Amino acid sequence: MPKIALVGYGRFGRALGALLEAADLGYRAMDPGAALPEAIRAGSVPELLEGAELVVVAVPVPQMREVLLALKPHLRPEHLVLDVGSVKVKPVEAMKQVLGAQAPWVGTHPLFGPLSLAMAERPMRVVVCPNPLHPDAAPRARRFYEALGCEVIEQTPEGHDRVMAETHALTFFVAKGMVDSGVAVDVPFAPASFKALSRTIETVRSDAGHLFTAIQQENRFATQARERLLEALQAIHRDLAALPAVASARQTEGMALPGLASGPPEPRETREHIDQLDRELVELLARRSELARRQSRAHAPEEPAGTKALFATRRAWAKELGLDPEEVEALFRIIVEAPGVG
């Protein structure tokens, strides 16, 4: 019998469903506007909630109250209702007003999206907002997310939204501004600094670009964060425009970024860079391992011809980058054949 009821089967709902399946957690879903597989489809709220312990509300924030009102007559004290919205003040207010003490509820925000899940990016982190009306709700939500392999961070709804306004909302704001201004993301001679930024733009565009308005409008702290950013950018723009064509070092002192010094790097920095890259390699191996497990569950074992083509491709990549193709192939043979990695 399914133990999780999933209300909403949009982009995030589908991604969460895949995560539940990977963790062998049974669930049933309901969404009148989506095509659901027969095996998980519920035709009514009572059918959806039958045997469920957790009720995950994965709908846009403006629809939250309407959905909670539809659920309310069918909820029992053993149910735990949690939302997955990217803002927390408004959903928590809605759950408090609609559900109150009737059934346990808690606000949560998974800090990952469909694209990051598809790419097996780790770690997966989730913010949980403890609920004084239902002290056991947050621990239950924590156990649920930890069963999915997530790290849990506890925060107040206001504290969460303030942080998201300064990070999530501003990232989307800057990315949309660059997209709308016609910035070319895919250019062959862009510096490394822009390539890192372009990846952020593409992630925003593909992972949650459709959430832009909600992230900006539903977070009451986002407007102030945008205004502060725009004021700072305008000040920088005015300062640059006021500089003479040939500016002295003294005239440009105020434009320097604090904490950035000139001069040759210390020898220890090379070791630190190597350690950082090794850490990234281990994280990439973990992601590769997860994707390989998904592939093995979905498909038959790869044929020898496919494995041979895989190694040939890696040899070609090595040659392009000036590495020894034989050594790179040997490395990938270890990776592919290693239990739990390949």
TrEMBL record:
Keyword terms: Oxidoreductase
Pfam families found in the cross-reference section: CM_2, PDH_N
Domain Chorismate mutase: 261-342
MF GO annotations: chorismate mutase activity; NAD+ binding; prephenate dehydrogenase (NAD+) activity; prephenate dehydrogenase (NADP+) activity
EC number: 5.4.99.5
Record carries keyword Nuclease: no
Enzyme class at the top of the EC tree: isomerase
Keyword Calcium: no
Protein name from the UniProt record: chorismate mutase
Organism of origin: Corallococcus terminator
